[in-house]
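Format notes (please read before filing issues)

Several people have asked whether sequences and structure tokens are stored in separate files. They are not. Every record keeps both together, in the order shown below: the sequence lines, then the token lines. Line labels are part of the format and must not be stripped during preprocessing.
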Amino acid sequence: MLGPVILAASRSDALRRTVSAAPVTKPVVDRFIAGESIRETTPVVRAAADRGLEVTLDVLGEDVTDPAEALLARDAYLRLVDALAPLGLGPRAEMSVKLSSFGQALPGGHDLALKNATAVVEAAAAIGTTVTLDAEDHTTLDSTLAIHGELRERFPGTGAVVQSYLFRTEEDCRALAAAGSRVRLVKGAYKEPASVAYQDKAEVDRAYIRCLKILMAGTGYPMVGTHDPRIIAIAQDLASRAGRKIDAYEFQMLYGIRAAEQDRLAAEGHRMRVYIAYGTDWYGYFMRRLAERPANLAFFLRSLVTRG
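Then the structure lines:
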């Protein structure tokens, strides 16, 4: 299985330098990364809106090691809010935040991440949009969900992300599937030990469907993060069985993956949100995309061979 190997490589500084320096890398990265700056990314957001799609924007960066870096990450999101404001898209263009980029892992990091996230959520609310707190590895989850709970007291539209490969996620879904909540369900993209997470793809898929049933039956707003045609069909069936209208849940997919399917769902009237990442700190995000699907890795390797 190459997935765990690639996920381990995503933490390697030596491999980061090698991959980043390779001249063949950037054209492949461009498939998944919208740009290095807000200026390059804004046209991508406009184009998505013109296609009837919604977006969530991620300023790339994670695992900061200095409080000053956490402030820089916060300020990057505040600049993103300023760039989104004139587009007038409101909640059609929300933001996704990794709390590790806001200093979560530093000494006193829980309070630091909460403070930085609060500033971004406040700014987002001022232009009529929302923020979703991305899931990272399992060691951060209790802190992330606690921050999510605190933010929701003032900003109830703040979203959370749960990962079906973790054993605990069904219980987390039961706790989160309450009125007004926004919950993105994904399979998971970090290297987790067998003591906390399913290792077999079929088990992860079955857990995903169990979690999806909980969210669809609840009173919150499920955000179905998947590219899997089978799960998309199951989600539609579960929503119908739960009596949900077509706008009472949404699908989410990554920028650069299954664009035709994104357009198809939007054309059918579904809310279809594209996860658009941008910035210069793309390595960890890119490696997780390779690990998630063999097709992504094959695409990268073919490009290496062709361009080499």
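For reference, the curators noted about this record: Confidence is low (pLDDT under 50) at residues 303-308. The CA atoms of residues 170 and 211 lie 5 Å apart.
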